[in-house]
Design a protein that fits this description.
Blueprint lengths: L7 H9 L2 H13 L2 E2 H8 L3 H13 L3 E6 L2 E9 L1 H25 L4 H16 L14 E2 L4 E2 L3 H17 L3 H16 L2
Antiparallel strand pairs: 1-3, 2-3, 4-5
Helix pairs in contact: 2-4, 2-5, 3-4
Length: about 190
């Protein structure tokens, strides 16, 4: 995004911006004027986090905060001109990514895509550590010399391992993973 602008203020903001900040800028930009509750529900972000981030975005000149004249409790958010530049750059980035994903996926015919999709779904549904029926899950594992864990604990461990792997990825790779997950598991 920084390579697509010469605005030093926008570049300075982007150097410190988090993905969550960009998503909130995106939510405000798509809605023109929006309140924190709407942003919170749309992204599943706690209201307190939305409040903290929008306050920070306001301090950075990205978001303008307005109170309703008849309701001082409700606060509305609107992008500033600089915020609109960030919003436009973010949209350009998403369009570019989607184009590259389509180009990449275009290498494969429909049958290959179906096969890949089925493999991904099967992999997600597969338990690589199967327990035989009638075996106590707490009994000693003769091969590893460890006791077997409860499947719920095992799932939590797998989620933890996945999160650890995701934390090591840069934003480009995270977007690719997000797109693959959306294609493989969320679209039917």
């Amino acid at each position: 995004m920084m390579a697509r602008t010469s605005d030093e203020d926008v570049i300075a903001f982007l150097k410190e911006a988090t993905i969550l900040m960009l998503h909130i800028v995106d939510a405000i930009g798509e809605s023109t004027v929006v309140n924190g509750i709407t942003i919170s529900k749309r992204f599943g972000i706690p209201r307190g986090s939305v409040s903290k981030i929008t306050r920070r975005l306001s301090e950075q000149g990205i978001v303008q905060i307005e109170s309703l004249p008849d309701n001082k409790k409700e606060v509305l958010f609107r992008l500033t001109p600089m915020g609109q530049k960030v919003f436009n750059l973010h949209n350009e980035l998403h369009i570019h990514i989607e184009s590259n994903v389509r180009e990449f996926l275009g290498r494969y015919d429909l049958e290959q895509m179906r096969f890949l999709l089925q493999c991904m779904k099967d992999t997600a549904d597969m338990s690589w550590v199967r327990f035989d029926e009638g075996v106590d899950v707490q009994e000693e594992n003769p091969v590893l010399g460890e006791s077997r864990t409860d499947p719920v604990d095992q799932a939590a461990g797998e989620v933890s391992q996945i999160l650890d792997m995701l934390r090591r990825l840069d934003s480009t790779k995270l977007r690719k993973i997000k797109e693959l997950i959306r294609i493989a598991f969320l679209e039917d």
